[in-house]
């Protein structure tokens, strides 16, 4: 079989456990698939031009890319509703409490160890989940040890930086990245679900500096207090080329982190 055909076969192989049968999952684990990927998302406003599913759709896609790059991994169903109280000023946005999100992750992961999984990698397609994940990581790890190693990717600042670098390198639009419904997220959705994008409604939102102080204000007062249309950044100039670059960059961040921490754990066993 040619190398190109092998790559196509790998891309088409089903990795989502919800689309596999129980026996197929058992066979995959027996063949060495001991890693589970747990993606977290959100159902929240994304400006006037993107659907509320943006973060969960993003998490779905990243999880498959991460699993393929790591190898020997299967993908759990995305936790589609996340921690989004700062978006509740916009109609339709949903949110769960931090304790609820933690409990869901614990319940998901507690099901894994008995089936032969050895580690779980958590990440989020929604930036707002990251403070909650960083907080519950030690409790989750303690609750699941030693049966299951927990690896939580928690560097949301690195994700924003990767988006800026992607938009800058492709189109000189790094300044359009604000972290929400901006050129990066819109470009990602153009890759994943272009039919869900309303380009005629796209408009810039808050264009100032997105730093820790700003994020604290947005979390406390709500995104609607700092951006009336719910956008942080500017979607102008969005393209599939930027979307592919952003997806690749974030995939690499999580894969490199998971690989390094998995190797570190192996050295201590």
What does the model show?
The chain has helices spanning 3-12, 22-30, 54-70, 98-110, 130-144, 156-171, 183-192, 212-221, 223-226, 240-267; strands spanning 35-40, 73-75, 119-124, 149-152, 177-180, 232-233. With 269 residues, it is of the alpha/beta class. It has a single domain (3-267), classed as 3-Layer(aba) Sandwich (Rossmann fold). β3, α5 and β4 (149-152) form a beta-alpha-beta unit. α3 packs across α7. The model has no long low-confidence stretch (mean pLDDT 94).
CATH homology superfamily name = Creatininase
Largest sheet: 4 strands, parallel
CATH architecture: 3-Layer(aba) Sandwich
- Strand numbers in spatial order across the main sheet: 2-1-3-4
Strand content: 5-15%
Which of globular, elongated, flat, extended, rod-shaped describes the shape?
Answer: globular
> Portion of residues in helices?
40-55%
Order of helices and strands: HHEHEHEHEHEHHHEH
- Mean pLDDT, to the nearest integer, reads 94
Give the structural class.
Answer: alpha/beta
Rg (CA only):
19 Å
Keywords: Hydrolase, Metal-binding, Zinc
Family: Belongs to the creatininase superfamily.
GO molecular function: hydrolase activity, acting on carbon-nitrogen (but not peptide) bonds, in linear amides; metal ion binding
Cofactor: Zn(2+)
């Amino acid at each position: 079989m040619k190398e190109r055909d092998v790559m196509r076969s790998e891309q088409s192989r089903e990795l989502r456990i919800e689309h596999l049968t129980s026996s197929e999952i058992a066979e995959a684990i027996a063949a060495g698939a001991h890693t589970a990927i747990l993606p977290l998302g959100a159902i929240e406003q994304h400006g006037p031009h993107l659907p509320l599913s943006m973060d969960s759709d993003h998490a779905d896609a990243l999880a498959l890319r991460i699993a393929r790059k790591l190898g020997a991994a299967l993908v759990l169903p995305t936790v589609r509703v996340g921690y989004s109280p700062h978006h509740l000023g916009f109609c339709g946005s949903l949110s769960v409490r931090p304790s609820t999100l933690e409990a869901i992750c614990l319940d998901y992961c507690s099901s894994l160890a008995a089936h032969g999984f050895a580690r779980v990698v958590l990440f989020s397609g929604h930036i707002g989940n990251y403070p909650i994940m960083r907080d519950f990581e030690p409790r989750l790890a303690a609750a699941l040890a030693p049966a299951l190693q927990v690896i939580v990717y928690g560097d949301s600042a690195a994700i924003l930086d990767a988006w800026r670098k992607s938009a800058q390198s492709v189109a000189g639009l790094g300044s359009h990245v604000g972290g929400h419904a901006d050129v990066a997220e819109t470009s990602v959705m153009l890759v994943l679900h272009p039919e869900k994008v309303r380009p005629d409604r796209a408009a810039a939102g808050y264009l100032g500096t997105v730093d820790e102080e700003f994020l604290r204000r947005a979390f406390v007062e709500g995104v609607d207090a700092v951006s009336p249309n719910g956008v942080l950044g500017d979607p102008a100039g969005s393209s599939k080329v930027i979307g592919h670059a952003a997806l690749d960059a974030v995939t690499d961040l999580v894969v490199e982190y998971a690989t390094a921490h998995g190797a570190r754990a192996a050295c201590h066993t």
